[in-house]
Specification:
With 64 residues, the protein is an alpha+beta fold. The protein has 1 helix and 4 strands; from the N terminus they run ββαββ.
Length: 64
């Protein structure tokens, strides 16, 4: 199984995405965001693969 590369947090839930079926993890996350846009606030995080700073880097917040 591929490693989790993108995370979305919403309503105290976390959804993780990885690349498969010729799509990147970010493409899968963007599909999830488009399907749920306007329903609740979502925070998009990208995995930081370096050995310092935070493991997940916040990249964008989608408001309700």
């Amino acid at each position: 199984m591929e490693k989790q590369e993108v995370k979305i947090e919403y309503n105290n839930n976390k959804v993780f995405f990885f690349k498969h079926s010729f799509k990147t993890a970010l493409e899968h996350a963007n599909d999830f965001i488009e399907r749920n846009k306007g329903k609740f606030e979502m925070k998009l995080f990208i995995l930081n693969e370096r050995n310092f700073w935070r493991k997940w880097k916040l990249t964008k917040v989608y408001k309700k």
